[in-house]
Specification:
The structure is a homodimer. By secondary structure, chain A is an alpha/beta fold. Helices cover 28% and strands 23% of the residues of chain A.
Chain lengths: 334, 334
């Protein structure tokens, strides 16, 4: 069961514009180390995080909308031209209505009729959404899809668990994707996803009781605190990652990849890629943003484009692990 | 901006098997009317609900898995043959990992590697997922997709608000979808979705404060109580529905539709369809199940097939409103 594309022609998908939003409040690792009584430099050494942002008065829809506006401007389109909004992150301001609709409203598109859906898989939603967008372009119904990711995970600041409380950061990133013109060589060369829920406990919310739904009156903050065991996660990731990568993309072709974007989950999962690719091709933003969940992939791509680390025509590989336990990867020409 | 398919050939999509799970605990309207001090017969008259189920020891993943097993059996496949699991409902047992992965685990497929994602849009996820599945079949990577919907919304039983507490029911329904054989005429003839978030407040969770995320320590049950205003909802639905239907499917072709499945949200939204289609073609299960959220569409289809109201080769129209405010519809040959 291998979902890697076998076609010689890439699937049609061009990232026409990218945008990001970082909350105003900057939280340095020094500040957190003092608060959590950790040795100086602990966050950078252990997590690779130097600073991160915490949302204060910003909502998830607000952050997503600001990132989306930047992406649309870069793509040279006005917001009304968007014909589908895909929210690709699991965070939401309100459980109902659909978070995509809440973003549509924040964009001033409340009367537009533009359809809004959510496509999520923990941290991996952006990759899944890129892949679905390409399949939708094949059916010819959509021409300009907005994919947004915005995460606020830092409300629960449990300082007794510094593994999590020092790691997480809030951020939003967005992309406008379109079918490429005939003359452009943008497109998806391979995608692959595998889920092994037998290993789901390496990264999950604390309690495995049923009834922890959002509609549950008995819900407590202990039920909804995200947790993970760094050692278990690392062992599981190591076990699966290299084999997965070689299924996603033939290692004989790895020199064609100009930029590698691992999941921006921790320093470890970024460093893990250095066993396979040269360090200078690997993009990490965990140092400046922390673990930003589903926003990590597009955020890293956005920074890479801004900093000239990737140009039109370059091949990009995004691949990483996510809570599930899932592995998900994509290779595309930017 | 009209996403109705213009192609003469339908998009490839065959519902090969359907399954459902209803919680054991049956709650009659008489019981609830006594509890809420409502006049006898109020629930049936006002909501169209005679009885509904409430999950007690069943989890969302458990219900989804049992429905999925029945769908796979009906499709004549073993679970290992599934190559993608799409969770199409917003309810979840735990926020992380991904609910699709939690269902995979409950199905005993934890080591399978079958990819798991969520595709949601409040009550409309099943229709969106059917449409995406067809687009994925076009790319040739998937052959057997499991779409699950399972909702538990009755934890918060706020009996001071009988509009909601007597309306909701818990249920799961699932479908195995496959690309049809050349000789089969199954497929999607039209799909359409429109979101008008300007009208989002007709159906939403109570408070419009930011920070009501699942990771919010300050979360209270008042923040997460679903609410809607029946009068506003009805007025908004009436305003949009008929125009939407005529965009989805030419009314000159309406006689070709054998079965109409409205959103199973309330008696009103089912009755609204009677302005357009003959009563005997309209399928409702709200009387026996209540409003089961995203499970409503596949649940109604499952009952319709069991009861012989639809057969292979018949044309089915699903269309309705969902929190967003969204309208979403599909016309397919079963």
């Amino acid at each position: 069961m291998n979902h890697t594309l076998k076609e010689k022609r890439p699937l049609p998908m061009k990232i026409a514009g990218l945008g990001k939003y970082l909350p105003k409040r900057v939280v340095s690792s020094g500040e957190l180390e003092e608060m959590c009584q950790l040795p100086e430099g602990w966050c950078a050494r252990k997590q690779g995080v130097v600073e991160r942002r915490w949302a204060e008065d910003e909502s998830i829809a607000f952050m997503a909308a600001r990132a989306s506006e930047q992406a649309a401007a870069e793509a040279g389109i006005v917001l009304d031209e968007i014909d589908l909004i895909i929210n690709a992150s699991p965070s939401f301001d309100r459980a109902v209505p659909e978070q995509g609709a809440q973003i549509q409203k924040e964009l001033g598109l409340g009367q537009s009729g533009i359809p809004c859906i959510s496509v999520t898989s923990a941290c991996l939603g952006f990759i899944v959404a890129l892949d679905l967008a390409a399949s939708l372009f094949l059916t010819g119904r959509y021409r300009k899809i907005l994919i947004t990711t915005a995460e606020i995970t830092t409300y629960k600041k449990d300082f007794s668990n510094p593994n999590v409380s020092t790691l997480m950061g809030d951020a939003a990133a967005a992309a406008i994707v379109v079918p490429p013109e005939e003359t452009e060589n943008c497109g998806i060369h391979a995608t692959l996803m595998e889920t092994y829920s037998a290993a789901s406990d390496v990264s999950s919310v604390s309690r495995d009781t049923a009834h922890n739904t959002l509609f549950n009156q008995r819900l407590t903050s202990a039920d909804i605190g995200f947790d993970y065991n760094p050692e278990n996660l690392q062992a599981t990731a190591m076990k699966y990652n290299q084999k997965f990568l070689s299924k996603l993309w033939p290692m004989s072709n790895k020199d064609r990849v100009k930029l590698v974007i691992p999941n921006q989950a921790s320093r470890f999962v970024i460093d893990m890629m250095k066993f396979v690719f040269p360090s200078d091709r690997i993009m990490g933003v965990i140092d400046r943003c922390g673990n930003t969940g589903a926003a990590g992939y597009p955020l890293a791509l956005c920074f890479a484009v801004e900093e000239g680390r990737v140009s039109r025509g370059d091949m990009v590989l995004m691949s990483g692990i996510g809570a599930g336990f899932s592995l998900c990867g994509i290779v595309f020409t930017y």
